[in-house]
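Quick one: structure for this chain?
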Amino acid sequence: MRNLYSENAFTGLEAAIVLIAFVVVAAVFSYVVLGAGFFTSQTAQSTVHTGVSQASSSLEEVGNTYAIANDATNPTGIAYVNVTLALTAGGTPIDLSSMVVSYTDNNGGHVANMTFGYIGTDASPSPKCPTMTTNSGYWCIGEKINNVTTGYMLDNNAQMVIMVGLPSTATPNTQFSINFQPSVGAVLPIDRTIPGGLTLVQPVY
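Got it. Here's what it folds into:
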């Protein structure tokens, strides 16, 4: 029996369907690849911006670290230390009130998160800045130098003297470390050794 239908048309239609399918699949694949590329690029850009922000918001120590003894006439240990902090070159201002200060020494003394006090010229809030009698576990901003912004924000080209109260384990010949961890930026460690003979005020190295 003769076949009245030609298969040429069906072959052309099938080829067209296959071609369209390949085009659609290629378009979808290209979209997925481009989307993944854009996402990767945005992630890399965000990482770079975060890294720059972290690097530009670090602290540095200015000058010496000074230790104040716990007694003016017969000192047996260190009551607190004064550390002057400033921003690194090109750094962005940092709110020091959100900074975490920790202390440790080789005599077993350790304070993971010291209590933040207040600016030394402000007499109303509590707790007070470290003194020779009440010092352990507290830190505060004892002095602001060339700082324009009010409060606890450390500006560019400014300095702040940080008073850190030490525990009773801070005795002569003790090695101690104070870590300053700002909310943004790297940790600033201060490693020092208390000298064997104490005076009321002495630099520590």
